[in-house]
Amino acid sequence: MAINEKERHRGLDLGAQALSGQLGKTIQRLRKAYNLSLSELAEQSGVAKSIISQIERNETNPTLATIWRLSQALDVSIDRVLATSDDEPFLEKSSRADTPILVSDDGKMRLGIIGWIKTVEWLQWYDVQGEPGGKLDSDPHQRGSVECLSVLEGEFEVTIAGMSQRAKAGESLRYRCDRPHVVSCVGEGPGRAIMVDILKAAVMD
Prior knowledge:
Elements (H helix, E strand, L loop, with lengths): L4 H29 L4 H8 L3 H8 L7 H10 L4 H5 L18 E3 L5 E5 L9 E8 L4 E4 L7 E8 L1 E6 L2 E6 L3 E5 L4 E5 L5 E8 L7
Antiparallel strand pairs: 1-2, 2-3, 3-10, 4-9, 5-8, 5-10, 6-7, 6-9
């Protein structure tokens, strides 16, 4: 049965709305994964703060140029930004080039964001690589949040609320991360670990 022009345009409009809605959620999740405010993302991408806010609220259909600027600022490919979601089985593969990287202020600690983008608001995990002497100073997460650091290579130290504890390969540290905390690479050689953040966890008194 032939589809008339009106129905075709309606289908295109619905498809555009669905894509835009998923795009907004993806941009917001990535922004939060980097702990960026709207103003900071606007400054890094060159896209107006008001436009980013409208995209996240699914109130506008951004141009390809806008999507490209945001993807560059968030250090991900356009394919990942535009990826849609459904309930069908899927098998995804992320390349090294498509893994966003956070770098500590001293340049000696690198966190690859390897967690699923859809869980970033409540569950995040990272591939941590550190050089000897590297320190990662982190601001508090939401109240009740917990961080788990499992060491794969080398030795790391976590300092929080005046307490410090070290862990070597095969050992893990778990701690509340809703207060300032520091993760340091204290071994003689490079270190590597997996870090998992459970956000908005049950408050522990």
